[in-house]
Amino acid sequence: MFYKALNGVKVLEFGNLISAPFCAKILGDLGAEVIKIEEPEIGDTSRKQEPFLKDIPGTERSGLYQYVNMNKLGITLNLETTTGKKIFGELLKTADIFVENNPPKRMKELGLDYKSVKKINPRIIMTSITPFGQTGPYKDYKGGELVATHLGGVGYLSTREGDASKEPLKYPAHLFSFQAGLCAAGATLGYLYGQKITGEGTQIDVSEQESVIQNVNASIARYSYTGQISRRTDVLDLAPHHILPCKDGYIYASFVEEHQWRRFVEVMGHPDWADSELFANAQIRSQYWDALKPLMLEWTMEHTVEEIYRNSQEKGIPLGAVRNAAQVLEDKQMKAREFFVDIDRAKTGKLTFPGVPYRFSEIQREAPVAAPLLGQHNEEIYCKRMGYTRIDLDKLKEAGVI
User: Fold this and answer.
1) What pTM was computed for the model?
2) Residues of CATH 3.30.1540.10 domain(s) within the chain?
3) Cβ atoms of 68 and 387 closer than 8 Å
4) What is the pLDDT, as a whole number, of residue 155?
């Protein structure tokens, strides 16, 4: 854990890949005890996802798995078996929260839909994350990161070099799966307060598609207001409002107010073309961006990111440096806040991971716990807490239950 804000809260996670595991991770980071349930011998699919340490695949070598599943206990359990379901029912009785991201049909077949879970534990908060939610014509459709991106309307805006004639691009990494997990965690924490007051449970139905639309798709609001469909182009309403290449990297220039542009003109040494009527204000500059862009690039490509960034900063210009991963790790702001954490884990050794983006003034931050090895805490959970013996565990393993 990082903080003991949720000390005493018990969470069961039956999740895969990103959304549900990240939701449970957020709760674990805040001090809840999270027990992650994985399929015997196979485990979470994220174990097979890159990046792998030294580019060598392995069940315990995925950086993605290790990040999304830190601050958790891990057990194996086959919920397809009668005994596995019985054991899971026992775990559910003492849980406050149950997080999952499985297809609704599968959960019903397993006898783990909310109606069934509620009979076992009436006060349980069951947080279910699916591509399209528990209702509607798409509820049983399969989906993934790419599907959520495009059915959420965001993919339409992704373009290569501002050229709308080229195909849309996939957004980097697992951006929207993390977003869905974050939304789920927020809703879960919100109802946790209600659970403490009323003693009643609920199912929280989270749609990945809806989380994309709500949080990262401003084009929906634009269409609602103006009827305008945002174009897949770098000709925007205002200019400059773009990422521009420099001598050794990229900057992001966004000048909403005219005085900001005039100050940047000063940083560029006030070239003659800056006084042209074609570039008189932000709206006109956007219309003639195809003429302005090469003139700006002629200057930016002669200077480093640091030069442009620092000179702009001195004049109060809203301009940012586009950082790569190595630069972010070495950023002095990150070091000052001790954001990144080193975690020493069996099989992989000490590695660096992102910490949490918040601090509590009255709660001491603690060192996080490494993501569990597959079945690492079977003995602790089954024997020490549930009363099974080591002989029982051997029999359960032989029967394919754990």
Assistant:
1) 0.92
2) 241-323
3) no
4) 82
Token reading at 165: 């004639």
Give pLDDT, residue 165: 76
56-106 pLDDT per residue, tens? 999 999 999 999 999 999 999 999 999 999 999 999 999 999 999 999 999
For residue 289, the number of C-alpha atoms closer than 13 Å in the C-beta half-sphere is 17
Place of tokens 């702009």: 312
A 10 A CB-CB count for 250 gives: 16
The span from the CA of 104 to the CA of 85, in Å, is: 17
Nearest to 393 by CA among 90, 166, 87: 87
Q: Are strands 250-254 and 241-245 parallel, antiparallel or unpaired?
A: antiparallel
**CA gap 200, 125 in Å, rounded:** 8
Residue 25: strand pairing partners: none
Architecture of domain 241-323: 2-Layer Sandwich (3.30)
Phi, psi at 323, each rounded to 5°: -95, 145
Which helix (DSSP H) or strand (DSSP E) does residue 114 occupy?
Answer: helix 114-120
Spatial neighbors of 169 by CB under 8 A, at least 6 apart, are 158, 159, 160
Greatest Cα pair distance in the chain? 85
Distance CA 95, CA 113 (A): 16
User: Residues 262-305: pLDDT tens digits?
Assistant: 999 999 999 999 999 999 998 999 899 999 999 999 999 999 99
Torsion angle of C-alpha atoms 352, 354, 358, 359, degrees rounded to 10: 0
**DSSP-based three-state secondary structure for 337:** coil
Q: Output the CATH code of domain 10-216+335-398.
A: 3.40.50.10540
- Do 66 and 348 contact (CB within 8 A), yes or no? yes
CA dist 300 and 10 (Å) reads 54
Q: How far apart are CA 370 and CA 352, in angstroms?
A: 11
> By the 8 A CB rule, do 356 and 338 touch?
no
Average pLDDT along the chain: 93
